[in-house]
Write a structure and sequence with these properties.
Blueprint: H1 22-38, E1 46-51, H2 57-65, E2 71-78, H3 81-94, E3 109-110, E4 114-115, H4 121-129, E5 136-142, H5 152-163, E6 167-177, H6 189-199, H7 214-223, E7 226-234, E8 239-246
Length: about 250
């Protein structure tokens, strides 16, 4: 029985060593690729919904990098209350002088973390009912598609964002992480090795873990009213930034 003190699916979590120096790695490798989308003056200021926020490292990095004129606020989420607590701990440690509601007006607001299991319609509905009802301009998710059900997970994400009017008509959805070109190939030997490693983890998740095929992901998106806008390889680690927009 999952509790607030234990993760729901431990096998889907990154090992603790992954977080050592993570902010510096993100700033050097990922941020240059994301910057044109996060600092786009034609869409500023952004309301950002982050899926599978992990410990909240991305939200903290974005607040340190961008002004409130570029990003108005960020809504972090995780799939269980354990993850929600981890995010809130990170945010509170980074900004101990002010709570979420008392954040300085000069700083990008990080809203209190919410539970969002992408497979749970009730969580999606609660997100749609929360807050100021303003749509999100950008949805971002990092290193998690290989840890959720496929194809059901991405289908729920694309469909829920559109059908519940959670995003603006010109919204972008950006995924970052490792992928494979198709269900029969890999981009590299290291990707194939990583795929085998995560698939062999203790099977506490009731579905198969593994790198997801880009060609199938694009078809899923198109079936839910989204178009593949751009695909960027991150040379430093062989991961990808996939950008989708509403059709």
């Amino acid at each position: 029985m999952p509790t607030e003190t234990a993760p729901r699916f431990p096998s889907t979590l990154a090992p603790p060593a992954y977080y050592n120096g993570l902010e510096d790695r993100l700033r050097q490798t990922l941020l240059p690729v994301l910057d044109p989308y996060l600092s786009d003056p034609s869409r500023s200021p952004l309301r950002i919904l982050e899926l599978a926020s992990g410990t909240g490292s991305h939200a903290i990095l974005f607040t340190k990098t961008y002004s409130i004129q570029q990003i108005a606020e960020i809504q972090p989420t995780e799939c269980d209350q354990y993850g929600v607590g981890k995010i809130q701990q990170t945010v509170d440690e980074a900004y101990p002088a002010a709570g979420v509601e008392e954040a300085p007006t000069s700083r990008v607001r990080i809203l209190r973390a919410r539970k969002l299991d992408v497979m749970d319609d009730k969580d999606w509905a609660a997100l749609a009912d929360a807050g100021e009802q303003s749509p999100y301009h950008l949805v971002f998710g990092s290193n998690f598609l290989h840890m959720i059900p496929f194809p059901e997970g991405p289908q729920r994400i694309f469909a829920s964002l559109s059908q519940l009017d959670l995003v603006s008509p010109s919204a972008r959805l950006i995924f970052y992480g490792p992928f494979r070109p198709s269900s029969t190939a890999f981009f590299s030997a290291s990707d194939e090795k990583f795929d085998a490693e995560i698939a062999a983890r203790p099977h506490d998740a009731p579905y198969t873990l593994g790198l997801r095929p880009l060609d199938e992901l694009v078809r899923i998106a198109e079936g839910q009213g989204w178009t593949s806008e751009a695909r960027h390889e991150v040379p430093a680690n062989g991961n990808w930034v996939l950008v989708f927009r509403r059709s």
